[in-house]
Amino acid sequence: MKTRKNLISVIVAMLLAVTVSGGRELFAQTTDDGTIICNVNDQSGAFIPNAHVMITSNSTGIAVTASAGSHQSYSSPLLRPGQYTVEVGAAGFKNATSTVTLTVGQTQIVQFELELGLATETVTVEASAPLVDPESSTLNTIKDEKTVEDLPLNTRNFNQLISLTAGTVPGNTQLTGSLPITATRGTVANTVNGIGFRSNNYRVDGLDDTENHNGQGILLYPPVEAIQEFRVQTSVPAPEFGHGGAAIEVVYKSGGNKLHGSAFEFLRNAKYLDAKNYFDPAGPIKPFHYNSYGVTLGGPVVFPHFNSGRDKTFFFFSWEGTRKSQALTYLSTVPMPAYQTGDFSAYPYKIYDPLTTTTVGGVTSRTQFAGNQINPSRFNQTGLNLLKLFPSPNLSGLVNNYVYTPASTDRRDYFDLKVDENITPSDLAFIRISHQNSSIYTPGSLPAPALGNQQGTNATYPLWQLASGYTRTMTPHVINELRAGFSRLDTVAYNGDYGLNTAEQVGIPGVNQPGDPRTTGLTAVTLSGYATLGDSGFYYALIANNNWQINDAVTWSHNNHTFKFGGEFLRRQENIFQSSNLHGSMGFGPIYTTDPAVSGTTGNSLADLLLGAPASAGISYVPGTIGKRRSDISAYAQDTWRLTAKLTLNLGLRWEAYPQFPWNEVQNRMSYFVPSLGAVYNVNTPQVPWRSGVQPRYTNFGPRVGFAYAVSQSTIVRGAYGLFYSPDVGEDVGNANPPFDGSISISNSATNFQGAYVASTGFTRPVGNNFPTLGASLFSIDQHLKIPSGSQYNVGVEQDLPSHILFSLNYVGTLGRSLLMEPNINQPTPGPGSVASRRPFPLYGDISEVAGSNSSNYNSLQMTAEKRLEKNLQFVAAYTWSHFLDYGDFVGTPQNVNNLHADYANDSSNLPNRFTLSGIYVLPIGHGQLFGSRLPRVADAFLGGWQLSTITNFYSGLPFTPTSSINTLNGSGSQRPNRIGSGELPSGQRSIHDWFNTSAFTIPSQYQFGNAGRYILQGPSTKMSDVSLSKSFAMNSSDTRSLKLRIDAFNVSNTPQFNNPNASIGSLAAGTITSAGSPITFQRMSRQLQISGKFVF
């Protein structure tokens, strides 16, 4: 009851704040529409009152009248992005007309200087629209239709264009294996100004488009051909935008009063067009086929006796299909055949017999196996069966000795229909329905039955989205926007060996349950220094996401103020069947065939496997589907205050509430470990009184303050500060504890081999889903967990240079606070003896606590030069110099929970230097061009209409962390090595065989954490250019029909884009690079060529 009263009190307070400000309505959110402001002056510069300003859409023919404001200008109502004709007239002056392009969310200020004369005379002028924005304090960039369609985009994903903005770091650029299932639909995850990609705020047609499960991507991916344009706000967006990352607004195309459309096809065939991956085996190039095709159609909808003429109802339809088949290249380390007989004599390090273990004075030591050979009588049969699943090497050497090139497939279909209705000149509405369906197969790094850690091998993703909007001009100074929508995304993902009782066949009981095909498959077996066996325990998975939302926006212009008020309600639902470890897992150290008393590398994880004793093991059981629910509520107020002719202040306040943060479960089937009580308790009980496990907070107020000062018409100084909240939209872990989820966790003691758990023991499923807590791995949560927050700030200058080049120089910073981590609060103290006896809570396994103990800071200098299309050329060049520090990755686990400070270091996405260039150049040859303007039509058909475009990236290598291949802690968790030197090699000494100095690191002494920090080394840099060459053919004399032929060359120079090296100190492969680019995400690939044709009418 108290919670509800708090919520009501905050809403009332916001309403009172709006009333005091003079607003008549509250709720507002959407900002994809824009406004045209016309300054109409005579030739002396004096304002002309009583002018008539008519603004007509070039696509729909809809005309509106701009009204006079009190600050000597004429303002339009809210308008959809597009091209408009502005006609200005006044008594005693010649009429003037000009064409103006309005972008998403833009306030376009246009200067008109009228000449004395008769009103019957009309002069077409090039209205002056300054490049600099004299009012905004937000850093943003806009990608228009031509940019989206004409730049070379690998797989034609608009998300790639976001990474061309200063301050962004593209994610998944080195991914060679599988993605989380919800991320495979869209694979470019951008970190923006030190804020993770899960905090990015995607909005499509004014509605939230964020996916619920894991927050890995967005729900609807608009096809390139259906996008009118999109805007990316990277620092201190206006108060109507929540989350802490970039605000990304996408606008779908609308129809017009003339029938128009396109048909297109993009085609690739590696056999004839592509270069091989650097690590592909000898022989013919592996097959790759990519085919993307579709149609768009837009125009008027005429209903006799219902609507009059062609300027009332409009439609836009798009359909696109994509078919892809691609061979992936995996380079792995697999066992030598002799290992199956226990013969490790070819292995360069000694292996030791765990039966000879002695501990004297706290120091444990062992005796070496004679000749590095294990007698087969010592084998554990299950361990041997698992070892035999590995394929034999097909390359020479002990490491990187197996290459596998399986084929992945990807089939996608996109359908969109949008209808716009011009009800009256003051009432506009639209509705859009979109459907997308993806079927994706991603193989693992090893052939069946080994699999190689497959993730969601066979997955389908049907999605439906309904979006609607209504805009009403209530008075010339008050405009209201209403948006409502619904999205549903289903996910069905199967493991690669679904239907096969592989775990049972190799001798691991308790995994494959009779009559339950969801539990079929193989246990995931990780082996230090070797490829992984089995599949990810996250799959089989069934997930259904439902999102309902409504928001409303009011804009009120009064004197020299523009007020915006608003709010939004978003209801998220997720029904999910998925476990984190459905088929079980076993990790082989090695811990038993090492000699802890010997400094350096000893032992072999495959020898531990043959003996059957893992370092750790576990399994989780899920009894059924759970239902997660959450509501996101927000309200805001904003004032754009033109204090003087030169100074504009942007003042705002946003309030957010998440009453069910992180999530509720419909039947309260959640529980958490409570550290102060040392036991697990259900939610909605005296011990965990809140249904979500976390006390709701209703004080999440985020101020936004900014200024823009016009030093001159071509120079603007701007700065801003904002406080943002970034609730993780991914599902929480409260359902992962008993009695609602069964979890078994085993940690073997490195000093007790004879009492160790062995693989052949398998797992015992509790009878009747009566899951015990004793010995289980558990989850805890800080019951007073704060919503993760971040302070953003920027200051800089924007200059309109000659040749209409807009240059900006900005300092941009971010401070992250209360960021999520998952420290293991039951971490065993390093030392001899049983693992459980050294834990704070010895009755349980690892306990991961969801806590806001992470923080970050990001500082950067950002420079951008932009030239909009003029005289055949447009480009954007962006450079970022930055440093990004934090205490851990998103929900990461520190090496030592008792020394978090040791983990303060570079973030995984820290890129000190990054330069991007995107540009389009229309060759000045042919009709209407500088050269050949009078060419005969036949000659112009071949010589004219050529265009070049490029996307070029140069940036520093990603950082990486050295790890220890041998865990000397005798407990759970990861361990870093000791650092005794810098580890860096001079650039001239680096190679794919020795990228860093491995001798600068050593295995830590027994029971000691390593002193090496996180992300202290840097991988290979990226230097590549994608280039497109196209030729347009006019199909008729009026140029209303055309055919464009095009070829795209991705990584045109075929420069190998090497990934980070193996950083497992003590491993034979340490320091070597075994992959290049990310075939999964089509980033940083070897040269690929694409040909296409597009017919436009």
From TrEMBL:
Domain of life: Bacteria
Residue ranges constituting the TonB-dependent transporter Oar-like beta-barrel domain according to the UniProt record: 251-1090
Region (Disordered): 966-987
This protein's name: TonB-dependent transporter Oar-like beta-barrel domain-containing protein
GO molecular function, one term: carbohydrate binding
Membrane protein topology class: Multi-pass membrane protein
Keyword check for Transport: yes
Keyword Transit peptide: no
Keywords of the record: Cell outer membrane, Membrane, Signal, Transmembrane, Transmembrane beta strand, Transport
Biased composition (Polar residues): 966-977
Pfam family, one: CarboxypepD_reg
Places the protein is found: Cell outer membrane
SUPFAM superfamilies (UniProt xref): Porins, Starch-binding domain-like
Cleavable signal peptide: 1-22
InterPro entries with a match to the protein in the record: Beta-barrel_TonB_sf, Carb-bd-like_fold, Oar-like_b-barrel, TonB-dep_rcpt-like
One GO BP annotation of this record: siderophore transmembrane transport
PANTHER family from the UniProt entry: OAR PROTEIN, TONB-DEPENDENT OUTER MEMBRANE RECEPTOR
Entry GO CC: cell outer membrane
